[in-house]
Amino acid sequence: MNVLILCAGRGTRLQTVIGDLPKPMIQFGKHTLLQRILYELIPLDVISKIYVNVSKGTTAIIKDLALSDYAPKIQFLYEDNPWGPSLTTFEVLKVSTQGLLAIHGDLLLESGTLGNFVADLTQNHAENALMSVHKRAVSNTSQIIEIDNSGLVKIIVWRKNSPLEFIDAEKKNEDVYVDSGIYFFPYYINKSLRTPASNTGISDDLLPQLTEKNLLTAVPWKGLRFAIDTGEKLEFARRAFEDYPEKFRI
Amino acid sequence: MGKNTESSLSVSLKSYEPAIFVDVDGTLWPDKGPGSIFHDIDLHAVSSQLKGLCNAASIHRVFAVSNQTCVARGLCTLEQLRERVFEIESNIQKSGVAFDFRYCIHHPEATNIKYRIQCNCRKPSPQMVTEITQKFSIDLNRSIFIGDRITDAQSASYAGVKHIFLINNEKMFELNINPINEKYTYKLVNFRVIPSIPLLTRYIQYYGVGLF
Questions:
Q1: Contact B55/B8 with Cβ under 8 angstroms?
Q2: ipTM of the complex model
């Protein structure tokens, strides 16, 4: 399995709080958010490649990681201007010969949860199961929709204009294709903290339908997790970090 | 009919070999601004580094690919640059490395009007790498590119080199004033960061090129 950590975002919603600092470089304790994710992923044997994508605005990440022991194991992807997570993921999928786990770099995850999650994912053979479920693409139109309502791993690749069109196509018994290299977790952290992103393409009503149809992989994710993309969420995460230090120990 | 068959056979049997593409200023020797090539360079150390890398990666051809703006900036003449390049080439070749030096002498803001061109060869354009690839039948999937700036990575990536390494230094993100051709806007620039060439040699000895 390959992993893509998305770190190219401009972080405009947090600019007033953290300035030019890239979101994945926000410090929690001794480590940054990105370092916390990497520390969990690097020892896992099932992961063959770790891609970290950066843009002109977030190159500080490369400088931060370049001197670490694990720098040679990381493949950096550079975008002059951020393409957006969906397009980046789509491009990486083109070159990735294995399943791809896309993770946003601005997540604060409880220690151990990522390792457990990857283990669950591989032990349950979710990747293979998905591969066998989906039909092949016929449509020429292709679009990727980012699902941004959980703040967790939140991308899925479609070869249809929208999930609604997909449902229509299913009704008409047309061939459709959903790329299965990416995993999505329809779990919420805290509904009151949700800030739907502008490119959210799936409504709450549609989620259960897609999950029922096995189009979204849902592997139980135990533990605390916070997506940090607004000042409010950052404050909330910081409070949790201080309140539960034993849960965020690396 | 017979002739056609022969030519198609000769094409299919053509062997493609990997190569090491390397930037020079800031990679093979310290980057002291335009004209670094004329500073004191320890060519013996450069040769041994390249030889070690070639042995570790089992690659026998090395191509230097460089933007040399010293002529365009009026710091030297083209003749002087050619002589210096020849001297470097022959010194490195003496150590047993098949070394070839390619360079672009243009600059969009050159003081010498003759070289003030928005050329197609200056990095981040992939043209220098592409020309070498075609001329010497290079297999880009097994080739390595080593540079020190993001423009090096862009050039190699657009050409199709699979294994790209950037030496970690302060100038890594000083972007070239050459605009990037629009057709490359959505191409992945995929690279790893390494502290130095000797360390890269050790990594390759340990992991092999394939893992990178």
A1: no
A2: 0.84
